[in-house]
Amino acid sequence: MSVSATVNPARHGQEEILDAAAQCFMDRGYAATSIDDVARNLGATKGRIYHHYRSKADLFFDVYRQGMQMNFDAIAPLAEQKIGIVEKLRAMTKTHTLAMIRTQPYQRCVWEGVELLLRGSTTPEQRIALVELHKMRTDYANIFRDVLEQAKREGIAHFHSSSITLHLMFMSLNSPLFWFQPSHGVDEKTIDGIASQCTVFALRGLGLKEELIADV
Amino acid sequence: MSVSATVNPARHGQEEILDAAAQCFMDRGYAATSIDDVARNLGATKGRIYHHYRSKADLFFDVYRQGMQMNFDAIAPLAEQKIGIVEKLRAMTKTHTLAMIRTQPYQRCVWEGVELLLRGSTTPEQRIALVELHKMRTDYANIFRDVLEQAKREGIAHFHSSSITLHLMFMSLNSPLFWFQPSHGVDEKTIDGIASQCTVFALRGLGLKEELIADV
DNA sequence: TTGACAACATACCCGGTAGTATGTTCCTCT
DNA sequence: AGAGGAACATACTACCGGGTATGTTGTCAA
């Protein structure tokens, strides 16, 4: 789960905090999570967290940013690849869903971050940070949007509103975030099966012909 | 939005509170909503709320219950109807989605209520109430599950896990809860169009043939 | 008329939590 | 070696919000 334990050791302490924070925010939600909760989860005290982050919101935002970074890292190589649109769509959706499952705590924070922005009950400075993060998420979604619209032009996908369809696709692909609890001993094959079902559902929803989906 | 303004006037005060509470809980989330917020939204004070409800959790649970009741009321007549399974599936999914849009604040509370149960950070008595409400939601979902499995047996729908597919279907149908903000002047035709796209996406996801979906 | 109760409003208490101010320990660089 | 700072822990404050205790007003029945 650790983001990248091999970077410079100076940041290693921060990433431990990020992992613990992501876990707590997922378990209890942003508002209901106290800094002491995160500290306890770390076997530490508030001092450690406030040494690295100025506020609870700052900590949360960093989790958000890290989560989005993971997503970009996962699909960037695929988006650039020069392959058929169907292949690209299948690869991107499947990869995205696997990323959701594997980095679940971070992605739940991304989700709540979006809600936090929409609700708008934040300080002006927090709002600025949130808007920037939201742009990151929009950029990410737009990678998929481009692929979707190209697929539509090529007669492979069929839908009316791109925006609504993008929402629907992501809701399907992201859905394991909300109903999948990794029990101890969850093997790779199970995860792949879940991601497969989500991907198939989404691609069908986009209007792809059945023979283009079968082997996802 | 008012649940039913024509019942006995004794309960009328409570339903005003329910509407205001549902709105606040949707706007800021359960944890971040204070009783004073709800009271302010009512143009009243805490006294009024605590006169009708013993605690913040009790108020929230009543919103949850009311939301589920609305859903049952909406699809119960359809589920009993003696019509073809395809017709029933189309009618139920479309009706459900319309209910989500029309009673959005209540349904967001239902959603958060489920999360509250899964997170499990509640008192024992609260947990009992939540479990009972969750059973209500499970019963509701099972109505759809039965229809789904019958459709699968008849070779109309195609999927592996019923549970996962049920999740995926509801995620699609419920998705307007999270990205649709009713602006002033939102007409019935727009709402119907949104519900239509969600329903088409879900029915496709279930593996229905295109000709069985076209006119939803 | 009055008294009893419903339906609130007002005033207050108190626990929890974000944030701060100040120690303490170790590590590093000169 | 020792000075300075990074990386924490400890102790404290201020405030917010759930819940309660008590006051106030209208209504209705006897």
Topology:
2 copies of one chain form a homodimer.
Chain A: H1 12-28, H2 35-42, H3 46-52, H4 56-80, H5 85-102, H6 104-119, H7 124-153, H8 162-174, H9 176-179, H10 188-205
Helix pairs in contact in A: 1-2, 1-4, 1-6, 4-5, 4-6, 4-7, 5-7, 5-10, 6-7, 8-10
Chain A binds a DNA duplex (30 and 30 nucleotides) through helix 3.
What does this structure look like?
2 copies of one chain form a homodimer. Chain A has 10 helices and no strands. With 216 residues, chain A is mainly α. In chain A, helix 4 runs antiparallel to helix 5. Chains A and B meet through helix 6, helix 8 and helix 10 of A and helix 6, helix 8 and helix 10 of B. Chain A binds a DNA duplex (30 and 30 nucleotides) through helix 3.
What is the name of the CATH topology of chain A?
Tetracycline Repressor, domain 2
Order of helices and strands of chain A: HHHHHHHHHH
What is the name of the CATH architecture of chain A? Answer: Orthogonal Bundle
What structural class results from the helix and strand content of chain A? mainly alpha
Strand % of chain A is under 5%
Using the alpha-carbon principal axes, give the shape of chain A.
Answer: globular
Largest interface: A-B, 33 and 33 residues
CATH class assignment of chain A: Mainly Alpha
Number of strands of chain A: 0
